[in-house]
């Protein structure tokens, strides 16, 4: 049987995201792109209104809400929607508007109310590792052992979430590729992903079009699909189950083949990869 996986399509409604900024700032264009992600096979559409690119300026909640809410309202019902935010106020309104998953790149550290909100609403949440903040994360990142440090962080955040009343089975974990990491840190995390899978929660992986791929292949953000596919296939083979990507159709096709080849049971709740009989 093919391994199961979940495809999370990226919908950034921001003027400054590193790879697709500006293009989807208009609500109409964002909704159309979201529908395209679903048609291409996204199980989840991850809607974000604040860029987390290195050095990006924080966005006030009112502005973030103005960007994401009209898009979430109109996409509700087409796929499971995640809200990519660090702000409890934004997450609460997004959940009211139809989102079902909270993707918090601060792992419940930015907003004191976020853990209680996720617990009260009983929704799934993704907790990601980031060193510092988007403003500071790329200032000379150093670790003892990057995989050990990220694992300890994710275990501590999982314990924090459970202590705050979030059901353990609601928590997904993410090593935060590119968030306060050098090229070598990112590669080491991918190489030893099984050590993070061993924590026992679904692992989310986000390499799509990121800078370390550009550094390795000397390619601009719009031209990193091959590296994106390579890293997602390797991550699947090492046990990741949720893949956050821009190019849903192409990565989905690659993962379908990889999943059939790897051929073992996947995480509960993830969908089965497409199966062909010939
Ligand atoms: N990367 C970005 C934004 N949000 N969320 C999770 N869980 N994991 C990631 O790796 C992640 C994220 C930055 O990339 P983008 O600007 O393409 O959205």
How does this model look, in words?
- This protein has about 280 residues and is α/β, with parallel strands linked by helices.
- It is about 40% helix and about 15% strand.
- The radius of gyration is 17 Å and the shape is globular.
- Mean pLDDT is about 90; it is low at about 265-278.
- Strand 4 (about 100-105), helix 4 (about 115-120) and strand 5 (about 125-130) form a beta-alpha-beta unit.
- It has a single domain (about 5-275), classed as TIM Barrel, CATH 3.20.20.20.
- It has helices at about 25-40, 60-75, 90-95, 115-120, 145-165, 185-190, 195, 210-215, 225-235, 250-260, and strands spanning about 5-10, 45-50, 80-85, 100-105, 125-130, 170-175, 205, 240-245, 270.
- Strands 1, 2, 3, 4, 5, 6, 7, 8 and 9 form a 9-stranded mixed β-sheet that branches.
- Pterin-6-yl-methyl-monophosphate binds near residues 12, 18, 19, 105 and 204.
């Amino acid at each position: 049987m093919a391994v199961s996986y979940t495809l999370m399509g990226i919908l950034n409604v921001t003027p400054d995201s590193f790879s697709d900024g500006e293009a989807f700032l208009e609500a109409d264009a964002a909704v159309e792109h979201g529908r395209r992600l679903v048609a291409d096979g996204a199980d989840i559409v991850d809607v974000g209104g604040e860029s987390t690119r290195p050095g990006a300026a924080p966005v006030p909640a009112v502005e973030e809400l103005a960007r994401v809410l009209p898009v979430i309202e109109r996409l509700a019902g087409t796929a499971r929607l995640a809200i990519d935010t660090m702000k409890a106020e934004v997450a609460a309104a997004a959940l009211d508007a139809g989102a079902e998953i909270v993707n918090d790149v601060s792992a419940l550290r930015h907003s004191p109310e976020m853990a209680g909100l996720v617990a009260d609403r009983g929704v799934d949440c993704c907790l990601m590792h980031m060193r510092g903040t988007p403003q500071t994360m790329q200032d000379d990142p150093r670790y003892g052992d990057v995989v050990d440090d990220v694992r300890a962080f994710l275990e501590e955040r999982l314990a924090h979430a459970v202590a705050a009343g979030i059901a353990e089975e609601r928590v997904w974990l993410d090593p935060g590729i590119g968030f306060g990491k050098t090229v070598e840190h990112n590669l080491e995390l991918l190489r030893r992903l099984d050590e993070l899978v061993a924590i026992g929660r679904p692992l989310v992986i986000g390499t799509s079009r990121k800078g370390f791929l550009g550094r390795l292949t000397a390619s601009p953000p719009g031209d990193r699909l091959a590296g994106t596919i390579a890293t997602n296939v390797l991550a699947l083979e090492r046990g990741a189950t949720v893949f956050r990507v821009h190019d849903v159709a192409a990565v989905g096709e690659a993962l379908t083949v990889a999943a059939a080849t790897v051929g073992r049971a996947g995480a509960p709740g993830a969908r089965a990869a497409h199966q062909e009989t010939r």
